[in-house]
Amino acid sequence: MEIHPTAIVSKGAKLEAGVIVGPYTIISDGANIGAGTKIGAHCVIEGNATIGKSCEIFTGAVIGSRPQDLKFKGEKVFLEIGNNNIIREYCTLNPGTGEGGKTIIGDSNLLMAYSHVAHDCKIGSGCVLANNSTLAGHVTIEDKAVIGGIVAIHQFVRIGILSITGGCSKVVQDIPPFSTCDGHPARVYGLNLIGLRRKGVSRESIKKIDQAFKLLFNSGLSVRHAIEKMEKESEKTDEITYLINFAKSSERGLARSCRSI
Asked: 181-204: per-residue pLDDT in tens?
């Protein structure tokens, strides 16, 4: 363990072997830092924040400070961050709200500078949040999603697995899995072909997902009727089943096709 002389680490914080703490960083009671995690200069880690192993936290990040929610009354809340995450300069990550509320971040994510993760968010693993990505409360981001720079995501929105959302987008409805979206508000432009290929999805499966997208977004059918037709006619690959379940469970509605502008 290596703690800079100017850092302040509370006796109530728990730091595992190999943790490095940079100059002028403050770590408060309740914080738990996993083995091998490196924390840069001028960071603040407070509240019931748990950070996993082998993470890198850069200058000025503020992790675990009280949620920006006027309903918060000092309940015991949590922030859980997994392993191998990179949290760049001046990111702000808040815990949940309500007694026992949690914000949860998985493994191997990259949060670029000035990203904000609000209360009660859930981020999967392998995601990228580019600079100034802004998540409102209760946002869910599924695995391997990419969020462009200066994207603002409305509360309770879900971002589907292997999707990519272009920079400066305004996201007010759910972003479908496997999609490429962009705009103000964000619209569906097609498949995230690069992401699907990197995941090893076969050419035949990608073709079937593309057919399902055309039915769901460009057929002129309502989402409900398109889902019904997909359930009757589409081959139930893992990806198609996932897409159908995502669409059926959407509470804010799916982002619309760019062709409906």
From this structure: 999 999 999 999 999 999 999 999
